[in-house]
User: Fold these one by one.
Assistant:
Number 1:
Amino acid sequence: MDTSVLLQHLSDYIELTPQEQEHFCQHLLPKKVAKRGFLLQTGQICRHSFFVHQGILRGYTLDQSGGEHLLSFAPAGWWMADLYSLFSQQPGQLFIQAMVDTEVWLLPKQAQEQLYLDIPKLERYFRILVEKSLVASQQRLIDNLSRTAEERYAQFERRFPDLISQVPQKYIASYIGVTPEFFSKMRANWLKRGNNSVPKKLSSQGCLPEAFNFP
Amino acid sequence: MDTSVLLQHLSDYIELTPQEQEHFCQHLLPKKVAKRGFLLQTGQICRHSFFVHQGILRGYTLDQSGGEHLLSFAPAGWWMADLYSLFSQQPGQLFIQAMVDTEVWLLPKQAQEQLYLDIPKLERYFRILVEKSLVASQQRLIDNLSRTAEERYAQFERRFPDLISQVPQKYIASYIGVTPEFFSKMRANWLKRGNNSVPKKLSSQGCLPEAFNFP
DNA sequence: CCTTTACCATAACCTAGATTAAGAAAACAG
DNA sequence: CTGTTTTCTTAATCTAGGTTATGGTAAAGG
């Protein structure tokens, strides 16, 4: 397992000297998690940020009646965490699960704090990522308040062209906030209406670079 | 107009020397905006962060059919901005309006960037605020996906006890994502059921300190 | 003082999407 | 290759919340 994907990501935002890269990487712990395996479960304290080197993670919660609500996907090149729990070091409510066999780098909370002091540029890196996440999160809020399920799916399609063919569609339904049944119906209407932009393998250029999920 | 509220807020997160405080304050511009006045409108580029010294702001968007969707309130002691526009310096979609006569401090984007370099502690300050905002935004997303309108109102009540008696309830309705009519109906049922926790002047201790809105 | 402009309440009706319940079709394990 | 599990589809019924409409009260404002 190598750090190339992560270092590339860092270099999109800040410039680190080879020594700084070295120092950063010393704090990383590799981890493999099999399909359906968990990196975190409700009630646990999130003690690491996870950087997805390969694979796909999802973060979701359960409501009172056991319904899943998918807060975020994290394909390769994304960070993931239960942010509430990570920042506050209180027990969180998120499950973080691998949707396929996945390899991640763990960055311990402690190390992250230390790195902010050792290499202030990293504070900038994570500030910018959090800013982007916040914008994305607010946009999703607005979309949930003001757009129909179909429009939300169209957004999703633009934002995550790759995921559509890679993850079961019930998870996509959960992300945009509808039941799998309704999602299926919606899709059927869609095809009937000739709006043929549904599953065809799209421009496979990875997820849009401005989309993040955490630090 | 004095900077005490803002400096107090800063000191909750970082310690600045008197000189640093002075340097920070030199970049601030005071502004008064009357009730219903706008600090920003759709299509404009957001060139400042706004710190509410006194009064209340709201940030909202319009959908295709002219419906308002309230993204955030900012009472005294909160930061406000169209974050997408501020970060990207592209035209935004938010209206930022005063709900009562309001006094704000403007922190120009340029100055903010410069201050990150001059006083790295400020980068930390804003990083932490953005982190908290992100957690709040994600929580609100989860709530919108998994809780009923009534539960969302209960949350709101806990989170913004003061606002309830200070702003017209149609705005609260918009914030939690229902129409004013439905909100009214809900409230009526509520009272009928004897759940008498609706408008009584609650513990007036200001908004919970962990709730933010931006930097 | 009277008018206008917010703001709030109530009620009848309507629709997007939930829920429940099946089956069909993949994916997967043995 | 066969049995099992997971995923997808379809369809009937149901409900939370939206829409439209109408009247009422409070408070700006001339």
Number 2:
Amino acid sequence: MATHKREHFTTAEQELAVIAKALGHPARVAILRLLTQRRACVCGELVLELPISQSTVSQHLKGLKTAGLVQGEVDGPRVCYCIDPAGWARARQLLGDLLAELPVPTTGCAC
Amino acid sequence: MATHKREHFTTAEQELAVIAKALGHPARVAILRLLTQRRACVCGELVLELPISQSTVSQHLKGLKTAGLVQGEVDGPRVCYCIDPAGWARARQLLGDLLAELPVPTTGCAC
DNA sequence: TTTTATAATCGTAAATCGACGATAAACGAA
DNA sequence: TTCGTTTATCGTCGATTTACGATTATAAAA
């Protein structure tokens, strides 16, 4: 049932969309998993694991950093990346809320 | 540590990316919520709620349908949309796995 | 200082996205 | 059949994404 037209999207909707967009590429999902498993840390190691070039990996890392999911600290000529605790906690929260809010429906369309 | 370069991304990574990409726009997140809350069902009702045009809503519905998150059945001149149980169950599974696999790290970068 | 290793950025190209208005298609009702 | 309602599609446009090689920092090592 329609109430009235919304002016904007909610902050939560936009925030979740930013997170989801960051997860919206297999390379970025793979990077997050490699970082948590500590199978890779430095950008060059990620490049060795992934089927994409160095510049593309760097670009994806930038995207993940912009979304707040990853942080990197300079370590000599290298950069050590890891999951950003605060940002990832927020992402988990938003995704968890979504899963809680949208259970698998038992009934189909009911118009 | 690097083992050896991967040829492709895994199926799970790609599948999750498809789901995440579908969630990567506030309009689509809003649509999913409206559908589960049964605050809207028919396309026209969604249009009345959302700050975007009819053609754009239809476009987003198509995207959600392609991702397998939503299904629609024709009801006279209208189309009744609802969450696709199987597709959404799969999406929940993949997102849940991600949350389980990637806990919030306690330690920061450790290179 | 010069070299070497690493990562970020630049420039570019192709593809996709997101939005809209306009039009077409589908269907029930008159 | 014709009309009115609803939804999908078309065409368009600008912006964004994804990819790459080449180049430019950056910093340690020689």
